[in-house]
Amino acid sequence: MKTGIKNLSVFVCICTVITLLLALTNAFTAPLILKNQNASANQALLEVMPDGEGFEAVSLESYTLPATVKEVYRETSGQGYVVKLVTTGYGSDMTIMCGVDAKGVVTGAVCISSNETLGKEKTYGENFTDKDAAGVEAVDVIGGATKTTAAYKNAVKDALNTAIILGGGSVDIRTEEEILSDNLSAALPEGDAAFDKLFLVEVIECADAVYAAENGAGYVFVRGEQFIGVRPDGTLVTDGAEDAEAIAAAVARLQSVTLQDIDLSAYPDLQKTVLSAQMTSSGNYIVETKGAGYGIKGGNEYHPASGEYIVVRVAMTPDGRIIDCLTVSEGETDGLGDACAQESFYGQFIGKTEENYTEIDAISGATLTTDGYKQAIQRAFAAVEILKGGE
User: Fold this and answer.
1) Nearest Cα to 286, choosing from 257, 256, 317, 308?
2) H or E element: which one contains 251?
3) Residue 10 has what pLDDT?
4) CA dist., res. 391 & res. 381, Å (int)
5) What pTM was computed for the model?
6) How many whole angstroms from its chain centre is CA 148?
7) Would you state the pLDDT for residue 306?
8) Are residues 123 and 141 in the same domain?
9) Which structural domain, as residue segments, surrounds residue 66?
10) Residue 5: inside a domain
11) What backbone torsions phi and psi does residue 217 show, to the nearest 5 degrees?
């Protein structure tokens, strides 16, 4: 019994000594670890604000900032701010650090984390150093990486706006979607802020895009930055809009369109690549084709790893010019190839012909998806040629 008590006492003493040693070690090492962590964090901040003397985190709870802004650090001597932002390139996130001085000039910008396949855009942030808002706006996006570099550029603009807001100013920080919705509602208030973008099967020369109010109150024709509201009878809601007669005629044309299904059983070769086909009353064609994206092998024999194809809807004139284009479905990689479902990608094919449809910006890091999409577009051209009686 005494031996047991003695052993227990020894064990307790050993545990006590170990605990004291651990506490003593932590007392000495914790400040060093914190110091090293702070130094590492400061190093990332100093990369975009090299003259910074120190940084402190800013509480963002009382501010309304762009959605991309995740963290903000104030330079302790009053030189400005460093903003950490997370934005989306071609379907994947990019984390960007951007420094802005007290005069609203970018001191540096760098992408510290990304799933994008970065080429020249890896050093794209260097273009913004020493630029103010006007200078940032003038920086060109990189051809072949338009989506990625445009997102990068917009993040830098968000950092500039953040510095203004933290300094007591005010700026418009609405997203592109919010701006579009507000403009549509302003052009046609009767639309109750609910609009659908029309898939156009007729050439509308007086607009880049047409939106229809879900409640049937009318349409909004978008031409550049101009939004023109028009009622179902063709009368304009927007004052001072040009081409009133052309817009009224376009509304009548949209309302008079009828579609006739084309029986593909008469075209056994097309059935391998074309899912459906229609002709409008004016002689245009609408075809849905499929292309071989990532992980799919073999010519006209499809073996999709994802279980899905890239399915594309194309409206085309008889002489082979694309009126509109839309991704119906896709089974591509999340954060990479699935960017083919974004309008910023498929919208590039509008107005293209068989001679120039390949001249579009590829999806960064998704070459096979891009090639598969082009394959679907090429099959749409071939289908229209056959359907109208060509070879």
Assistant:
1) 317
2) helix 244-256
3) 52
4) 12
5) 0.68
6) 8
7) 44
8) yes
9) 55-166
10) no
11) -70, -15
Q: How many CA atoms lie within 13 A of 26 on its CB side?
A: 6
> What DSSP string describes 320-365?
S-EEEEEEEE--PPTTTGGGGGSHHHHGGGTT--TTTTT-SPPPTT
Residue 327 in domain: yes
Question: Which pLDDT belongs to residue 197?
Answer: 97
Whole-angstrom Cα distance, residue 327 to residue 295? Answer: 18
Mean pLDDT, the chain cut into blocks of 10 residues (391 residues total): 52 56 53 46 84 94 93 95 88 86 95 71 89 94 79 94 93 87 96 96 95 97 94 91 90 95 92 93 95 60 54 96 95 80 94 96 86 94 89 52
User: In the 3-class helix/strand/coil scheme, how is 123-192 assigned residue by residue?
Assistant: HHHHHHCCCCHHHHHHCCCCCCCHHHHHHHHHHHHHHHHHHHHHCCCCCCCCCHHHHHHHHHHHHCHHHC
Name the residue with tokens 């607009």: 207
From the list 134, 132, 70, the residue with the least C-alpha distance to 103 is: 132
| DSSP helix/strand/coil, 9 | helix
**Amino acid sitting at position 162:** T
The structural domain count of the chain equals 3
Distance CA 386, CA 371 (A): 23
Q: Is the Cβ–Cβ distance between 88 and 94 less than 8 Å?
A: yes
pLDDT at 73: 97
Residues in the chain: 391
Q: Are residues 126 and 162 in the same domain?
A: yes
Contact between residue 229 and residue 251 where contact means Cβ atoms under 8 Å apart: no
Whether residue 212 is found in the same domain as residue 240:
yes
Q: Which amino acid is at 76?
A: T
Tokens representing residue 183 in the block: 């403009």
Do the domain assignments include residue 25? Answer: no
Our CA angle for 77, 81, 86, nearest 5°, is 155
